C-alpha cells in the first residue's frame, strides 16, 4: 500500500462504517474526487446525500459550499452578490467570498432547478473550472461538484448539465432493519478522520499515473459497441473522461495498472435512467468481469426479495411468514452460489463476492430476527 493510497482507503473504511448500505456510492464518490469529476445523487430526501459529501470535504479539510436551488434561485446565491464598490467604478464584479467560485467541494441540491440565469455559469464552472467575474476568467479550485435531485432533468436545456455528471447513483432509503436501527439511534454521520488537502492531491497524482492497459481499452470499446446495440448511447466526452475514473478505481484497489474489471465502475456512468442500470450492469459485467457481475446480480435478487417480504409484514401475517421462510431458504442458496463462484476467481473478484456474501448474510440475520420477534418466540429481542 503506497503512502498516497493509505488515507483514501482509511477514509473509505470510515465512511462505510458511518454510512451503512452506501458502499457503491462511497466508492463512486471517492473515484470521482480522485479523477476530479462530478457525481449526481438521485433519490428522495433524507437519504444522507449531503451528509456524505460534507464528510468527504471535512476529511480533506477542503473548502465546502452547499446550496439548495429553487425555480426562483438567483446567480447571487451560488456566485455571490454584485459588488457595490465595483459598480461605482462602472464595473460588474461579484463578491465571491464563501461562494461556489472559492469552493473545493460543492453540493448543489435540486440541481436541475437551475434556471437559465445560473445554468451557463454552472456549466463553465463544472467543465472548465472557470468563473467569469467582471469579464475576466478566474480559475476555480473546484475538485468535484456533487449534485442531488429527486427527479431526472426535464427539458433539453438541462441535458448538458446532466452530462457533466460523469457518475450517477440512485440512492434510496435503507433496506436492512439493522442499518435503519443504527442510523436512527446513532449520531449524525460525519467523517472522524482528517487529512491535509495535500494528501488528496498526492492521491490524485498517483491515480492519474495508473497505467491504462490495452486490454482495458479493448474491453471499453467492446462495451461501447454492446451498449450502442442495446440503444444505450453516451457522449464521446463521457467515454473519454471515463478512463480517469477507471484509473481511480484501479488505484483504490491498490493496482498500478488497470484491468478490464476496473470498467465495472462505468455501470454508474452509462445509464440515462435508473431503470436502465440493470441492463448496463449486465452488458458491462459480461465484458469486464463476469464473476463480479454475477455476484451483483445475486445480491440485487436478494435485496429485491428482502424488500418484497418487508412489504408483506404489516398486511398479511400468514403470507408474510410463508414468504419469509422461502426468503430465508433463498438467502442460503444465494450464499452457496457465491461460494461456488469464488472457486477459481481472482483476488479482486473474491473480495466482491465476500462483500456480497456478507450483505446477504446480514439480510438473512435481520429477517430471521424479525420473524422470531413477530412470532413472539422465547428469547426474541
Automatic annotation (TrEMBL):
Coiled-coil region: none
Source taxon at top rank: Bacteria
InterPro entries attached to this UniProt entry: AAA+_ATPase, MoxR, P-loop_NTPase, RavA-like_AAA_lid, RavA_ATPases
Bilayer-crossing regions: none
Pfam families, sorted: AAA_lid_8, bpMoxR
Database matches in Gene3D superfamilies: P-loop containing nucleotide triphosphate hydrolases
Domain AAA+ ATPase: 35-175
PANTHER family registered for this protein in UniProt: ATPASE RAVA
Protein name as it appears in the record: ATPase
Native species: Anaeromyxobacter paludicola
Amino acid at each position: 500500500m503506497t503512502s498516497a493510497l493509505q488515507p483514501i482507503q482509511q477514509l473509505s473504511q470510515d465512511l462505510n462504517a458511518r454510512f451503512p448500505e452506501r458502499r457503491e456510492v462511497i466508492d463512486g464518490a471517492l473515484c470521482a474526487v480522485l479523477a476530479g469529476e462530478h457525481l449526481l445523487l438521485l433519490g428522495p430526501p433524507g437519504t444522507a446525500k449531503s451528509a456524505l459529501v460534507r464528510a468527504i470535504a471535512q476529511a480533506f479539510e477542503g473548502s465546502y459550499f452547499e446550496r439548495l436551488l429553487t425555480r426562483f434561485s438567483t446567480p447571487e446565491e451560488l456566485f455571490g452578490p454584485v459588488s457595490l464598490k465595483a459598480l461605482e467604478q462602472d464595473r460588474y464584479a461579484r463578491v465571491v467570498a464563501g461562494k461556489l467560485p472559492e469552493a473545493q467541494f460543492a453540493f448543489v441540491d435540486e440541481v436541475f432547478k437551475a434556471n437559465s440565469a445560473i445554468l451557463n455559469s454552472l456549466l463553465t464552472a463544472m467543465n472548465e473550472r472557470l468563473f467569469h467575474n467582471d469579464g475576466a476568467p478566474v480559475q476555480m479550485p473546484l475538485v468535484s461538484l456533487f449534485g442531488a435531485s429527486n427527479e431526472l432533468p426535464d427539458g433539453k436545456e438541462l441535458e448538458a448539465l446532466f452530462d457533466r455528471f460523469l457518475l450517477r447513483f440512485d440512492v434510496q432509503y435503507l433496506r436492512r432493519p439493522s442499518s435503519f436501527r443504527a442510523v436512527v439511534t446513532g449520531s449524525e454521520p460525519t467523517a472522524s478522520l482528517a487529512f491535509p488537502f495535500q494528501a488528496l492531491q498526492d492521491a490524485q497524482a498517483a491515480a492519474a499515473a495508473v497505467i491504462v492497459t490495452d486490454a482495458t481499452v479493448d474491453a471499453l470499446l467492446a462495451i461501447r459497441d454492446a451498449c450502442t446495440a442495446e440503444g444505450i448511447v453516451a457522449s464521446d466526452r463521457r467515454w473519454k473522461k471515463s478512463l480517469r475514473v477507471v484509473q481511480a478505481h484501479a488505484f483504490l484497489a491498490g493496482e498500478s495498472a488497470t484491468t478490464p474489471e476496473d470498467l465495472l465502475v462505468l455501470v454508474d456512468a452509462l445509464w440515462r435512467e435508473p431503470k436502465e442500470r440493470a441492463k448496463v450492469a449486465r452488458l458491462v459485467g459480461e465484458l469486464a468481469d463476469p464473476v463480479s457481475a454475477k455476484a451483483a446480480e445475486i445480491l440485487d435478487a436478494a435485496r429485491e426479495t428482502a424488500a418484497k417480504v418487508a412489504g408483506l409484514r404489516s398486511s398479511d401475517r400468514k403470507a408474510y411468514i410463508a414468504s419469509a421462510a422461502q426468503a430465508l431458504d433463498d438467502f442460503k442458496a444465494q450464499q452457496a452460489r457465491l461460494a461456488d463462484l469464488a472457486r477459481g476467481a481472482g483476488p479482486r473478484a473474491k473480495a466482491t463476492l465476500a462483500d456480497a456474501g456478507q450483505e446477504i448474510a446480514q439480510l438473512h440475520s435481520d429477517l430471521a430476527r424479525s420473524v422470531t420477534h413477530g412470532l413472539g418466540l422465547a428469547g426474541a429481542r
